[in-house]
Amino acid sequence: MSMPSDVKLTYPGQFFDGQSAVAHDVTVRFSAATLMISTDAGVMADWSYDDLIAPDPVVATKPVRVTHASSPYARLVVEDAGFAAALLERAQQLSKSAARRGTAKIVGLCVLGAVSVIAALYLFMSFAPQSMARVMPDSWRGNLGVQIEKMLVRSSKQCTGAEGVAALKKIDERLRPATPKGEIFEIGVYALPIVNAFALPGGKIVFSGKLIAEASGPDAVAGVMAHEMGHVIERHSEAQMVRVLGLSMAQELLFAGSSRIGGAASSLAGYLTILSYTREAERQADDHAKAILEQSGVDPEGLITFFELIKTKTGEKKTGEKKADGKKTDEKKTDGAADKNSTSLFSTHPGLSERIESLKNAPKWQSTPILTDDEWKALQAICS
Question: For residue 75, what are the domain limits?
Answer without folding.
Answer: 10-94
